[in-house]
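Help! Submission page says 'invalid entity' but I think these are all valid:
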Amino acid sequence: MAAYALSTRGLTKRFPGVLALDGVDFGVRPGEVHALIGENGAGKSTLIKVLTGVYAPDEGEVLHGGEPVSFGTPLAAQRAGISTIYQEVNLVPLMSVARNLFLGREPRGRLGLIDFARMHRESERTLREYGVHTDVRRPLGELGVGAQQMVALARAVSVDARVVVMDEPTSSLEPREVETLFGVIRRLRADGVAVVYVSHRLDELYEVCDAVTVLRDGRVVHTGPLKGLERLKLVSLMLGREIGEVRAEGTTKFGGDHEAASAEPVLKAEGLRVPHQLHGVSFAVRPGEVLGLGGLLGSGRTETAKAVAGALTPSAGRVTVAGSPVRTGSPGAAVRAGISLLPEDRKSEGVVPGLSVRENIALAVLPRLSRAGLVSEARIDALVRTFMDRLRIKASSPHQKAGELSGGNQQKVLLARWLATEPRVLLLDEPTRGIDVGAKAEVQRLVDELAADGLGVLLISSDLEELIEGSDRVVVLRDGAVVGELTGDDVTEDRLMEAIAAAAEEEPVTEVPAASVPATSEDEGAPDVTPEGGGSPAGQLTPHDGESAAPDPLSAPQERKETPHG
Amino acid sequence: MAEATALTRTAPDRSAVYAWLQAYGVYAGVAVLLLFNVAFTDHFLSAENFRTQAVQVAPILIVALGMALAIGSEGIDLSVGSVMALSTSLVALYLGWGPWTALAAAVLGGVAVGLVNGSLIAFVGVQPIVATLALMVGGRGLALVLVPQLEDVRDPGMRNLGSGDLLGVPYPVLVTVALVVLVAFTVRRTTFGRQLLAIGDSRPAARLAGLPVRRVLLCVYAASGVLAAVAGFLATARLQASDPTSLGTLMELSAITAVVVGGTPLSGGRVRIGGTVAGAVLIQLLTATLIKHDLPPSWTQIAQAVVIVLAVYAARERGKR
Amino acid sequence: MSDTNTRHHGTRPADANAGGSADGSADTHGRDAEQAPPTGHGHVPGQAASSGPVRSRPRAERVSAFAQRHGALVALVLTAAVSALSFDSFADPGNLQNIAVSAAFLAIVALGMTFVIVSGGIDLSVGSVFALGGVLAAWGSRHGPLVALLLALTVCGGIGLVNGLLIARARLAPFIVTLAAMLGARGLMLNITDEGADTFLVAKDSLFADLGREKLLGVGVPVWITLALFLLGGVLLRRTRFGQHVYAVGGNEDAASLMGASVARTKVSVYVLSGLLAGLAGALNAAWLASGVTILGQGMELEAISAVVIGGTLLTGGMGFVSGSLVGVLLLKVIQNVINQIGSLDSAYQQVVSGAFLVVVVVVQTWLGRRRKARLTSPAA
């Protein structure tokens, strides 16, 4: 076997109170795609940051081509041929695509001044290989997220990298963009580049990776070839549990369906439009019902939830709660009407990190707990105690800062905040993303209970399994419009994938008048969306290998893979 | 960035020292200055001196209270000095109708500037530093347009307010104490206070929680404007003159210093009123000490510059997000 | 940017089969790239990451981009034209010369401020540093022009260095550091001048005085120096790696650092540059006035910031250009000149107008920025 292109020996990194890395031995060979996985807090990010020069290790060493190295800065690592693509696109949105691509290594002409003509020419040529066809003089921020990610990738690779580190590169990509990415990764492997690939999506790992290293609590618990390693075994390594347990925990904690079909809708959204984002979205949620919102990234799911909750201002459309209209564009009005939103971005839009758990829970109901603008501490205490018990929020005390809690507990604090307002509708945007398995199950169970108590729930989840098992009904969005609905026995992953796949092949429907939105639940058969030649899309798109947990339901047709080179 | 992070991560002791300094440094500083003056300054321990110091600290402290609210909401109000100037101009213009009318006019002026600031910040979405900078430029101009040069203020009522006392406590000090109590109570015990802190800590989260973000911000800057106007009124009463050219210049800096030295982080989400009081006292004592030891005023400016840099330096580890 | 429309057809041969209709629908609806209808994609292989058809900007956006970039110039031309028609004395060569020279000093300060603001910072110390530079240069001029300039530049550059180190290395907030520096520099200046009582004179026939008072081709030397500095500044910001780093640091500091730009060095450099230019402007001003006047420079930081922002530089950083700042300075000075010409108006109106201008520009910028953001961040992620 070839020598390691990049490796570590006994790497240890401490942060106050935390041993982030504990004697980590890790290595990636040239021409190898090496998966690095682990649960949140396992030390993946820290390891990457040490490898790429962001942190200096406390003990141990990084070996590059067999030689011990110490990169003081990301730049030093980059110059040594180690490039990184971060989870969020880390480029400068206001600068042009070309300037982003060439920042720090601009071609220079006379007098050492930058040769823009050459830079633009080379940028266009490079990006074409990555399937990005755009005017490279446009500000990068005008591109879609996927295209931005590709620019980041092109940048990372084009600095003559020998090692490329990818930190969850697919988290904001659409399935067909993921395919292009995989094409690039395979090309890198063929060129003998070592790739470190971090992802939570197991399917992706099995598709592109050769080897895997599993981290847990800052330690390497497994390293070896990926082929032949059972998926369940991998999960059990990550979680540190026995396989039997994983099997039991592997399924979601959602119970059965709820009987709600007959009741009047508690929430109705009609013809919601937000310029460039939503083009007439309508749906209804009945009390005691969990309505799933399906669709790909960028289909308008989050925007729909935000528009209903007043966080986005719709240019047209109506939201009614139990028949009475809600003023749109005002979160306050929505809260007063009984709509509450658990936002996707929990850290920046959910908890108030500097305030205590107690203050966070009481935040939305302060006026109700006050008299003449003066808060009643006793009533707050009573409320907080109730909800901390009921939701089993684990905090050292009610006065601990919310920002110090784990993701799952933060999510529960948010739920408590909303439940305190006695809402009628709960909008859950990726409620279990990034929280550990135990808390995930608890949150799922809780959602179930709440629906059983008569709340109307709107559930958005990229976890297909969660969406299907949690929802009684699923409305499918694409390009900011409703394109289908699954009810009853049709709420299955296959049906959902079909609906999305069918939608993706359809002619663009830029304006869907509210009236033309498929009527709800009038047929129990196939999804309503049947574009011209209903059978053909299903035939073209072969959902890959039928794995149930597939987060990306779309696998691109074969022909697409072959010609990324323009 | 990497270095800074590494530094704080590997030196918990040092960051604990900074944390202590941020929280209590201001009290230690005040104590040191007091001891120094008791030991080396003639006639420092006299009722008269204390009264003088208290009267002089009053405007800084009142302005600093408003600044603390603005900073707590993750904002800043650079227009306070100009509001003081505007206030003194309005007092000169309306004193003919009696001191109370003059006060009302000054306060209305402060509210108006505050509302403009607040609207720019809350409704248009302009950064606080930029919005209040514009009013800082325009406000003093307006004050000078109203009253182009220094005017004497001769009014027995004003004079009594500026230099009279109740049981030996000068009126400006009484007013200041009342305002300190009022603001402290508002921050701690009212929904407005809680909402203000939540907004300062995380604006998007507060918005999504249904808090009336715009209204709260509008109130914050209006309050800051009112407090600065009151400070301008009191200063006019004490000086017996309306001088919009120089009144309140660099006041924004003194107020920010008082707030920051007092341990309120510039990143918002927290307001320390006790610390702010101590911060204002610290600045006043520093100035008084230098003057009493015959150092020219320029030294005061240099010293204040050093103090403010030290204060933000001590606060930086914890204020960082 | 206005040629986007014509370019994209050339660069995207793959689109040919999609035909104009796809382009049309994407354009008219102004969708974000990611959401663009997949009409084209369906048949074009390997296009996964691409945006849809390259979108030409809708007219509204082109107009706003134009307003951002050239609004100040339009306002300047209009104001100057109206002034010239209204006041006979305005277009007088002597008056124009006056405007040019008085604009020169502010312009030099604004040039440094442009770099600072583009890097995402702010420098409130320039007014004090300007005054300090003038006093130091006047004091040093008795030993010759070289000493005068070197003294002013060294001390003022040093203040910029301290600012930069505190901001970049200690990571303190720029406005507070430079506010402290404003106080410190003024304290220092008062200290050397015996609390403002001493005024150092520049000998009228000295070489240093010539620097401020001589004319070249009928135009004052400070004006020539200013133009040269702006030319250099423009090249520095647009055409060098350092300039790219300034943009990158202002646009997204974390990204810039991860992309290998030296954030700290870039920041320190812009504050040093700002200090140097403010000091130079002060020195030239002292040469022009033949004395180091201690009361100068108050409020100059606000004027400089106003000029830069009016000139189209984004106060939040990451976007801007030096020529706009020059236009912004000229606009402020023309307005000031007009106010002076209307004898009945007090000079305080200048401040009111500046403040009002600042409010308007900032409101428009924020509004445009928000619209742009709304367009850019439409996809869920």
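Support: the input was valid. A stray whitespace character was the problem, and the output above is from the cleaned input. Strands of chain B lie at 151-152, 165-166, 169-170, 241-242.
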